[in-house]
Specification:
This protein is an alpha+beta fold. It is built from 5 helices and 5 strands.
């Protein structure tokens, strides 16, 4: 399946902007990535940067891990929006969460109202 952000089960540029402060920091990043159950493999692909191939859509905890990893290492989170589903929309689109603007941009007044009303 192809979404507006590219193939659903691919994350690109997962290394753009990362500054590793030590070899162990870099090792920790790749070990963390490898431990996320939905990650099948990853590889550098030139202009597409580090591409992460997923076995399937991330489950709730896996998506939270990807969000945390992107936050920790300063990776652009916009492409994570493609994993929004009816089942995760309420927590993923909560404008009070630290990841909201990084994934979806500035919340509209309607989004603020909908979360507080629920």
């Amino acid at each position: 399946m192809i979404t507006k952000d590219g193939p659903l089960l691919e994350l690109t540029q997962m290394d753009t902007g990362i500054l590793f402060y030590h070899l162990n920091d870099e090792r920790a990043y790749f070990e963390w990535l490898a431990r996320i159950p939905c990650v099948e493999r990853y590889q550098g692909e030139g202009r597409r940067g580090l591409v992460v191939y997923l076995k399937r859509r991330p489950r709730k905890d896996e998506l939270r891990e990807l969000i945390a990893m992107c936050q920790r290492y300063g990776v652009n989170m916009r492409q994570l929006a493609k994993f929004e589903t009816v089942a995760n929309r309420k927590w993923l689109r909560d404008p009070q969460k630290y990841w909201y603007e990084a994934i979806f941009g500035t919340p509209t007044g309607n989004e603020r109202r909908n979360v507080s009303d629920s």
